[in-house]
Amino acid sequence: MTAAPARILLADDHALVRRGVRLILDGEPDLTVVAEAGDGAETVALARSERVDLAVVDIAMPRLTGIQAARELSRLPDPPRILMLTMYDNEQYFFEALRAGACGYVLKSVADRDLVAACRAAMRNEPFIYPGAESTLIRKYLDLLRQGRALPRKAITDREEQILKLVAEGHTSKEIGDLLTISAKTVERHRANLLHKLGLRDRLALTRYAIRAGLIEP
């Protein structure tokens, strides 16, 4: 008997990108897109309500980034496998994606070539790194070891990163509190901690930092 196709949740804030990726995936007999999300928070909500085997998630999305969403997906009782789909050929994003629970990293520029193979690798519980990345990443890792340095760590906690992104997107403390199910006062405390920890002065400086950190697009 033929196995049922892998059920895929596709998350990207651009409808045109989702349509193109869906065409690629739905054209394969062993893969089928069963749900689409336009931001990170919707991705997590859909994964909770739908039976999903695999989440294909863009890194740069509103409300929650793909990496933040991946962390939430990884904490679900029956988590889907996670592939990051991105335009960023960047080792920092790659390492963050792995830490967040992703098993693969696919560049949008070559999605038509790599995405199907990456989905199938994920469903076999195998990692997928886009061709050409291995030597760059291994060289980077060996350079860090040679210099006696660990892999780069984040300056802020996961929760602070969530709040920083939402502040930079212009949400009020109440809106952020509602989204993250915490009080507005707790949001204000986190924001004050962020300013102090990062040595920044105001919301504008936080927004600039969020852009540099790749949490929001300029």
UniProtKB/TrEMBL annotation:
Task: Supply the source organism's classification.
Answer: Bacteria, Bacillati, Actinomycetota, Actinomycetes, Kitasatosporales
- The question of whether DNA-binding is a record keyword is answered with yes
Origin species: Streptomyces spectabilis
Q: Which Pfam families does the record associate with it?
A: GerE, Response_reg
Q: Which SMART domains match?
A: HTH_LUXR, REC
GO MF annotations in UniProt: DNA binding
Which keywords are on file for this protein?
DNA-binding, Phosphoprotein, Transcription, Transcription regulation
- InterPro entries attached here? CheY-like_superfamily, NreC/VraR/RcsB-like_REC, Sig_transdc_resp-reg_C-effctor, Sig_transdc_resp-reg_receiver, Tscrpt_reg_LuxR_C, WalR-like
User: What's the superkingdom here?
Assistant: Bacteria
* Name the record gives this protein: DNA-binding NarL/FixJ family response regulator
Q: Does the keyword Calcium apply?
A: no
Q: Using the record's annotation, list all stretches that form the HTH luxR-type domain.
A: 149-214
Q: Which residues carry this modification: 4-aspartylphosphate?
A: 58
